[in-house]
Amino acid sequence: MNRPGSIYEAIGGADAIHRIVQAFYKRVGVHPKLIPIFPEDLTETARKQTLFLTQFFGGPPLFSEERGHPMMRRRHLPFEITPTRRDAWLECMNEALEEAEIEDPYRTAIFEKLTLTANHMMNTPE
């Protein structure tokens, strides 16, 4: 069930999340800083991201239902996430939000929330 007044609901629900994820992984798959830490086939990664973003922005708790508590930092520890890779990830996400036509104030709110998350995922110095 969607939380009334959630970002998920405000941006258009599942369709908007799908547009964001598709635009995002189109960029990740060719970004020289990100290619080393992502699988060649991004299908499953994109599917998990869809589950996570749906839940993260107030939609149905799809990620937790399938995979348990998100524990995002723990799940990302095997990957060397440097400040440069964080910045590359955020660059791809910012462009994806633009391509997916997510309007303000939601675009800014999403980007701020994901910036906090990306900062928390860093685990390796340059």
From TrEMBL:
PANTHER family: TWO-ON-TWO HEMOGLOBIN-3. The keyword Heme applies. InterPro entries: GlbO/GLB3-like, Globin-like_sf, Globin/Proto, Hemoglobin_trunc. It holds the Pfam family Bac_globin. The keyword Heme applies. SUPFAM superfamilies: Globin-like. Belongs to the truncated hemoglobin family. Group II subfamily. It comes from the Bacteria. Keywords: Heme, Iron, Metal-binding, Transport. This is Globin.
